[in-house]
Each structure stands twice: as C-alpha cells, then as structure tokens.
Amino acid sequence: MKVIITIATILISTSLIIAQERIQTFQSAGFKVKCDCELKVNTLYIQMAKQNGINNIIAAYICGENENSPEIGVANNINITDESASYNKISPSNYGYFEKRTLEVYASNLQKAGFNYQYTTYKGTSALEYSFDQMELPTKALFFIKNKKTYLIQVGTRTNLLSKYNTLKNSFELF
Length: 175
Hints:
Layout: H1 2-21, E1 23-26, E2 31-34, E3 40-41, H2 43-51, E4 57-65, E5 74-82, H3 84-88, H4 95-112, E6 116-122, E7 125-134, E8 137-146, E9 149-157, H5 161-171, E10 173-174
Antiparallel strand pairs: 1-2, 2-10, 3-4, 4-5, 5-9, 6-7, 7-8, 8-9
C-alpha cells in the first residue's frame, strides 16, 4: 500500500510541476500567461516594425506547438506597444476618447482588410476580437488598450481554434 501511495504522490507532484511550468511570466513586459509552448522574443516582428517606423514596442513574443504538423500545429503571438507618448499629448479627461478612437481606427483597418470583428470587453476595458486566415491558417485575435499600452493576443490553428484561443486569452494576466 505504501508503494501505491508513494507512486500516486509522485505522479500528482509531477503533474502539478508540469502544469505550473506552462505558466510563463514576463516581468519586463508586465504579464504572465499559460501557454503550452515556450514564448520567445519575435525578433522578426520587431525588426519589421522598426523598419516601418514603429519604435514603441515593449514586447513581441511568439511560439509554435507541433510545428511540423499543419493539421494540429498552433501559432501563439503576443505583442505589446507603449502608447504613453500619445497620452502625453492629451489631457487625462480625453483618455477615454483617445482609446475609443484608437479602437475605431483599428476596427476600420480590420474592415478594410475584410476581417470579421466584434467589440467586446476584456479585463475591464473595451476590446476588439476578430478572426482571419493568416497564410491559410485560421486565426483568432484580441486587441485592447490598458495602462497606456496596446495588447494583441493571437492564436492560429486548424484544430480546436476557439478552445486554444480562449485558453491563452483567459490565462493572460497583467501585473
């Protein structure tokens, strides 16, 4: 009986450690998230953004699960930009209007690109949730503004997209 209890304890402990390892914390970017693959700095995105004059990127992370299998592979993407310079140009009483206009401009760009989107609330703030195909990969994304920063959370996969997207989105925590 002691052997069975010992084995059960080891299995439970191992499961808890594995589950805890899936939560990744990014102190410098101010968030943590549960993700089944290791998020790494997306240097290509950062480089392309800088070439297009975007110099306010706080963080850009990407990872892939089952990358060698197009049917079950998953691409996860999180981008954060610092919009504080824009806020410095307006009075605090206009922050809400600025955020509303930023979402409207983003929505307009989505519409022009032919993406389906909807307004929603996320972490107590207005947000845009949308779907599109990224190089024939079904993708869901969330865009929102909080604490003078814009956040983009994306998941692309051909298998269980909604479930995988919701897991990433719902586990995302700011600190």
